Amino acid sequence: MTAPVVHIVDDDRELCASLAWLLESVGITARCYHDVDTFLASYDPARPACLVLDVRMPGAGGFQLQEELNRAGSVIPVVFVSAHGDIRMSVRALQRGAVDFLEKPYDPQHMLDVVQGALRTARERFARAAEEGALRTRLARLSPREREVLHLVIEGLAGKNIASRLGISVKTVDVHRTRIREKTGARSITTLARDMYRAGLGPSAG
User: 183: closest CA among 131, 135, 148, 133?
Assistant: First the structure.
């Protein structure tokens, strides 16, 4: 996996530079942006990262960026910072998925601890997202009939019951099961089902 990066989005240029220096002093790659549009123009959602985000900036603010990332399904952990934070603001940030909310000026060591925790979360989230993406690609190879058979197998129906439900022969069900394993590269339907449920792709998830 590519080494994660910390994106710092804050219109305070001095603070950005200071935080980037702090992070890089312990071997963490950091990138500074002074407005939301500049960040979005260069952001690579495929690279593991966390985001240190100011609440109030000229133009689009931190909450607007958080909402846009959420709509896009981004898994990037967000750490909010603000010189004007209050409880309502921090609750709003956390309810919408932020991993922390820090008031300026923040303690450098505490910021390092928070960022390192956010990077651990980023590695886990991005790895899980990559696995889910690969699984979706494998499942997309299945025909509509094969998906039907797969879901019925996962629901626990025996071959003869699946055949009766779909109006096909038991032998045809067996052929579909074999093709499902071949197309998805699964060792068995059981392991495929396990992976699907872990990824939230089981039959009940649609």
Answer: 135
